[in-house]
Design goal:
alpha/beta
């Protein structure tokens, strides 16, 4: 359920929606952080759901002391009206037994809001790649048939590789099974993509193969690939140092080592 933080509910008709999957390395969430911070997007509401682990904290995008103490919740919506862009930032893990219900909530909200397209930013375990997935860049994409109709030329021009289907039983070439879509470590990515195909929603998935650790470089790589498609920044501003790092990243790996230890 979407709850607006404004006196009048925002209109998302014909907006592009970006949202992260809670996946390996939190690459999608970090990429969304860069987008919200750089574009100075406005918070317009949040999704109220019991499918996420409940938590709250200070403003992750604070620019001064006055707004640093604002209370923020696990699933918030930001917009840049001039770009017709909306972002759903998810900051908490999905409760395992409620994953399907959360996907249904997202699909219902996307349909009722009238978004023109949805882009899911995700990641997958690098160590579980198939042999064919070791070739080329670690970027892969998926697109539903309804979005492919209007974006096929743009995606072809970008030269991205579609996520490969892999054998159900690797190492058994004679196994009589169809290759399947597998996104290990991708959270709800595969399920949300399948749901969107079934509901005829225009949705794309942009994911990066990565490992757990310092995933800041992965976030920059993913957001730059996204920018090649959506042109969120001007051409001259597309270098990595033009993305604005939010203040919350100062504590990405916790606070410093206490001097008292030494």
């Amino acid at each position: 359920m979407f709850i607006s933080s404004q006196t009048t509910a925002p209109c998302f008709r014909d907006f592009t929606l970006l949202l992260p999957a809670v996946a390996v390395g939190n690459v999608g969430q970090l990429a969304v952080d860069l987008i919200v911070s750089t574009l100075n997007m406005s918070r317009v509401g949040h999704l109220h759901t019991d499918c996420l682990i409940p938590m709250s904290g200070n403003n992750p995008y604070a620019t001064c002391k006055d707004d640093a103490e604002e209370l923020h919740t696990p699933a918030e919506v930001y917009t840049a009206a001039e770009l017709k862009l909306a972002v759903l930032q998810i900051r908490a893990p999905i409760i395992q037994t409620k994953s399907k219900r959360f996907r249904q909530l997202l699909v219902s909200w996307i349909k009722s809001s009238g978004f023109s397209r949805t882009v899911v930013l995700s990641s997958s375990h690098a160590y579980q790649r198939d042999d064919q997935q070791l070739q080329g860049k670690p970027l892969r994409f998926l697109v539903t048939p309804s979005l492919l109709k209007v974006s096929a030329d743009a995606l072809k021009e970008l030269g991205w590789k579609e996520m490969e289907r892999v054998p159900a039983f690797p190492g058994l070439p004679d196994a009589d099974t169809e290759p399947r879509l597998c996104i290990p470590g991708g959270g709800i990515t595969k399920g949300l993509y399948a749901d969107s195909c079934a509901e005829d929603l225009p949705l794309a998935v942009l994911l990066l193969f990565c490992s757990e650790g310092d995933n800041i470089p992965d976030a920059f790589a993913l957001v730059n690939h996204l920018n090649d498609w959506l042109h969120l920044l001007d051409t001259q501003d597309r270098q990595a140092n033009k993305w604005k790092i939010p203040t919350s990243w100062n504590l990405l790996f916790g606070s410093g080592i206490p001097p008292a230890l030494f």
